[in-house]
Specification:
The complex is a heterodimer.
Chain A (H helix, E strand, L loop, with lengths): L1 H10 L1 H4 L12 H10 L2 H18 L1 H8 L12 E4 L2 E4 L1 E3 L8 E3 L20 H37 L1 H16 L2 H12 L4 E3 L2 E3 L5 H10 L1 H16 L2 H8 L4 H37 L11 H9 L7 H28 L4 H5 L2
Antiparallel strand pairs in A: 1-2, 3-4, 5-6
Chain B lengths: L2 H21 L11 H12 L3 E6 L14 H7 L7 E3 L10 E3 L7 E3 L4 E5 L14 H13 L5 H5 L5 H6 L10 E4 L4 E5 L7 H6 L26 E7 L3 E6 L18 E6 L3 H9 L5 E2 L5 H9 L5 E5 L2 E6 L10 H10 L2 H8 L5 E3 L31 H11 L5 E7 L2 H17 L2 E7 L1 H9 L7 E2 L1 E4 L9 H5 L20 H16 L1 H18 L2 E12 L9 E2 L3 E2 L8
Parallel strand pairs in B: 1-10, 1-11, 15-16, 15-17
Antiparallel strand pairs in B: 2-3, 4-5, 5-7, 6-7, 8-9, 9-10, 12-19, 13-18, 13-19, 14-19, 20-21
Helix pairs in contact in B: 10-12, 16-17
């Protein structure tokens, strides 16, 4: 639109006074990165889809109680629904042939109820998908925060202080890294899933969502802590840090002012990538019955529910599978965009903006 | 050709065609002619071929005195013989006990405490050894030496069994099982008369094996038997292969008839879905495991001629631990029994054709069964009709157990887990804080028996060992079946009511002399135990057998189910 283009051009100081006025100082690295990210169409599209998924899942409770009028955490084997004026059973016994078996209602494609059909307990799969998505996203986010927090503390401590601290932390990381990640997560889940955990004031009861959150958060710590340690080691020997040391700047100030801001970009790059990874791990654990515990749902548990209905009602397993794939894809594409935006190696291109 | 020649050719042609049709005709249809030639014709026509059975997994040890799975008990029928055996018949006939390695039913003396068996002559084991009275004595000793799972439950009434149970390795059953080589007899002495001893002698744990069989679990090395077939190889990760016993000569069609297929193989490692697909594609002849729920409608329509549905004397039930909260409160247990919608569970199991809702312990058609159901709307009809949620909630209020945490233990199989999920939903509706813990089918049954695991409520099934009311009531709810801290405590609810227990013992005594009166007593005991709600009885299942197109002569024996060796594949 011409008017708005003029308006934007008019607001641009460089265009308003191209010759005489002082140029504004170059934008800081954060602003530059943000601008680059905003201009990355793929990353923005992915972010938009991800935000839509989050908003959709946030309406789980509203959808279940006000739109579909269902409670998707209790069995509804004898329930009925009216579709196009015709009353149908949620779980319909077979009336053909020998009359063996009963089949849950298929997708009605109507938001008023059973949009994606029912599972073998007669529960609304779409409503469960929304609740499940909420749990999956919550576990992925919370475990990412825990993972990055631990990784940052351990990686920075090991890299900056070196010596005994580095040796001890690095060996512990090596031990955790020695286990295949899924084997470790499965083993921890099997051992802990049915028992409450008391660590000082922290009590996690059996079946709590915090259990998969902590397990997933912890098992990925070495994968983030190692590169952080490496980066800190490199920063520690960089000229600007050596200069600060030479000037007698205290260690804590060097850590706070010189090291952490540089490490922060790496941590931010890890956020979407770890979320995607954690979501896949959570789904795998829940699919194996050692993640989210029934009657709570996650996309992994719904796939497991659908496993027994693959022949008659494939949508029960397909829908959460697609949801996981799309969410992980959006997080990865967005993560790539964030990495490109914050990657120092692309500074030359940023400078050309 | 002249006209006359044409006529001659036509007459000759008619004669040739008629003769051809006569000599190439099919064998006579069943029902025509005398039975013996008909049987002989069938034996010739259908004898041979390889029958392929498929299963998700192997059934564990192949030792017939240790294995306690339907999977192998079914196959043992053609492999091993006891002194007595269940008749290889269908319907009620299949529950009859007939002489097998014994020439006749035993001669009974000493008010039922002494049983004298005359052993058949000329019978050989599959390794060529002759069957002798020594083998019989050694086999009874071996039941205790290998600590057979039913050694205490079934055979503790044999004189000397108490010592054998205490010190299995040195078991002699002195004075309990006595052989007379000259007379070719074996005498069984019991500490007291046992109305069910014939049944106990007819199950696979009492089969006769060579005297030199190792006194330990043989695992995957099959022991020689006297049946029509023998195990050629067994790899629990791959296949069980059964071939004809070259030394077998039929001596009793009722007890050990010759079979049709030359070879029977059971392949392991398929999923239940894959089993159905294999049978549907005629790549396998029979699937051991029940078809998965989402394939039932398909096989019931597309392959309906290949499906056999048979009622079972069994039950699915949810034992509630009467010794720990919250189910040490009778009202809480009754509330659960009232709240369960059994029709919903029947739907989960596959619909009305495959299960019937019940709420009493003895299954329909079982000795002592009289219709009874207090946990329903309109209980006066004595049949379950609908859940009574109002009454259930009122009982919950009275019990004071609202808000109590409860963990439901189910198997990790699809149906058991579904039933567990449903129970969890009902318990939450009643006000409990319910969780579901599905655990591996391989260990669930022993896990829920051990009181150390503090199981509150579980989902399990019970299939009859033999057709006697005590096999449900005394075994599952008798004080003698409850052993704290043991994996072998089949009274899962831990129910022990001294008064009811005394009545059960009395009924077992009465059964020796007056089975009819005993059945009446069992009906009363059934009502008493049901009222106490130590378990929520859910439904009586039916059995689905899915067979290949080529499999013929399918027969279902109520004791050992599909009679594998009596079916043919060609």
């Amino acid at each position: 639109m011409a008017a708005s283009e003029t308006s934007i051009a008019g607001n641009d100081p460089r265009q308003a006074d191209p010759v005489g006025a002082k140029r504004r100082p170059a934008a800081g690295p954060w602003a530059t990165a943000f601008r680059k990210l905003v201009h990355d169409k793929a990353a923005m599209a992915a972010l938009l889809v991800f935000i839509l998924i989050v908003i959709g899942c946030s309406f789980a409770s509203y959808y279940a109680s006000h739109v579909a009028h269902t409670f998707p955490f209790s069995s509804n084997l004898q329930g009925k629904i009216v579709i196009d004026g015709v009353e149908q059973q949620i779980i319909a016994p077979s009336t053909e042939g020998l009359g063996l078996g009963s089949t849950p209602i298929g997708p009605t494609w109507k938001l008023q109820g059973y949009f994606l059909g029912a599972d073998d307990q007669g529960r609304d799969v779409f409503a469960r998908m929304l609740y499940g998505g909420l749990n999956s996203l919550w576990i992925a986010s919370a475990s990412t925060v825990i993972c990055l927090l631990f990784a940052a503390v351990l990686g920075v401590t090991a890299g900056f202080f070196g010596g005994v601290a580095d040796a001890a932390i690095s060996r512990i990381m090596d031990v955790i890294w020695a286990f295949p990640i899924f084997l470790l997560a499965i083993s921890l889940s099997i051992v802990l899933i049915n028992s409450s955990i008391n660590i000082g004031p922290i009590v996690i009861r059996a079946g709590s969502l915090w259990l998969p959150i902590f397990i997933i958060g912890i098992v990925y710590v070495p994968y983030v802590a190692r590169p952080i340690r490496g980066q800190v080691l490199s920063l520690k020997n960089s000229e600007f840090v050596l200069a600060a040391v030479g000037l007698g700047v205290p260690s804590h100030r060097i850590l706070w002012k010189d090291i952490l801001p540089n490490v922060a970009t790496t941590l931010i790059v890890f956020v979407p990538l770890m979320m995607a990874l954690n979501m896949v791990t959570e789904s795998a654990l829940s699919f194996l019955s050692i993640g989210v515990q029934p009657p709570d749902a996650s996309w992994g548990t719904i796939i497991q529910d659908g496993q027994n209905l693959l022949y008659s009602r494939p949508m029960v397993a397909l829908a959460p599978g697609i949801a996981i794939a799309v969410t992980v894809l959006t997080l990865n594409v967005f993560g790539d965009g964030v990495r490109d935006a914050l990657d120092p190696r692309s500074k030359l291109r940023i400078g050309g903006d | 050709m002249k006209r006359a020649q044409w006529l001659g050719v036509a007459v000759v042609a008619i004669i040739v065609v008629a003769a051809g049709a006569y000599f190439m005709r099919k064998p006579p249809e069943p029902g025509g002619g005398t039975p013996a030639p008909q049987e002989a014709a069938k034996a010739v026509e259908h004898r041979g071929g390889t029958m392929r059975l498929v299963a998700v997994g192997a059934g564990g040890t192949i030792d017939p005195q240790i294995n306690y799975t339907l999977q192998y008990w079914q196959l043992y029928q053609g492999l091993y013989d006891g002194l007595l055996n269940f008749k290889k018949g269908v319907g009620e006939e299949g529950f009859k006990v007939v002489p097998d390695l014994a020439e006749d039913m035993p001669q009974v003396a000493d008010d039922g405490k002494t049983l004298i068996f005359k052993i058949r002559k000329g019978i050989k084991f599959s390794n060529g050894q002759d069957l002798t009275t020594k083998d019989v004595v050694a086999s009874f000793q071996r039941i205790f030496k290998v600590s057979s799972p039913t050694a205490g439950g079934f055979y503790s009434g044999i004189v000397g069994a108490d010592k054998c149970l205490a010190e299995p390795a040195s078991c002699t059953l002195e004075g309990g099982v006595v052989a007379d080589e000259a007379a070719n007899t074996v005498t069984l002495h019991l500490t007291q008369p046992d109305a069910e001893i014939y049944y106990k002698l007819a199950v696979p744990h009492a089969v006769i094996l060579p005297a030199d069989s190792p006194a330990k679990d043989v695992g995957t090395t099959a022991l020689p038997g006297t049946g029509a077939y023998m195990v050629e190889s067994y790899d629990p990760n791959k296949q069980l292969k059964i071939v004809r016993n070259p030394h077998f000569k039929e001596w009793s069609k009722d007890a050990q008839p010759d079979g049709y297929p030359d070879v029977v193989v059971m392949d392991f490692g398929l999923t239940d879905e894959a089993e159905v697909t294999a049978v549907a594609n005629d790549q396998a002849d029979w699937a051991f495991d029940p078809p998965p729920a989402d394939r039932l409608a398909e096989i019931g329509t597309k392959y309906k001629d290949q499906v056999h549905v048979t009622p079972l004397t069994a039950m699915w039930y949810a034992p509630m631990n009467v010794n720990i909260p919250p189910f040490n409160n009778e009202k809480a247990r009754q509330a659960v029994s009232y709240a369960i919608d059994r029709a919903a569970l029947v739907k989960l199991f596959g619909g009305d054709v495959l299960a019937s809702p019940v709420c009493q312990i003895l299954p329909p058609g079982f000795p002592g069964h009289v219709d009874y159901c207090p946990f329903t709307k309109n209980p006066e009809a004595n049949k379950w009709s609908a859940p009574d949620m109002d009454k259930a909630k009122a009982l919950m209020q009275e019990s004071g157990q609202i808000g109590q945490p409860v963990t439901v233990i189910s198997e990790d199989s699809a149906v058991s887990k579904s039933v567990g999920t449903y129970l969890q939903s009902v318990l939450n509706e009643l006000g409990f804080k319910a969780e579901l813990k599905p655990i591996s089918s391989n260990i669930q049954f022993t896990y829920i028996q051990n009181t150390n695991n503090k199981v509150q409520i579980s989902v399990t099934q019970w299939y009859q060992d033999y057709p006697a009311a005590s096999d449900f009531l005394n075994i599952l709810f008798g004080c003698d079946s409850f052993h704290e801290g043991s994996d072998s405590s089949v009274n899962i609810a831990g129910f022990c009511d001294k008064e009811i227990d005394a009545k059960m013992k009395e009924a077992m005594k009465v059964a020796v002399t007056d089975p009819k009166k005993a059945d009446e007593m069992w009906a009363g005991i059934d009502r008493a135990v049901t009222d106490k709600a130590a378990a929520a009885i859910l439904f009586t299942p039916k059995h689905v057998d899915f067979v290949s197109k080529r499999l013929g002569n399918f027969q279902f024996n109520p004791q050992f189910y599909f009679m594998v060796y009596q079916a043919w594949v060609q």
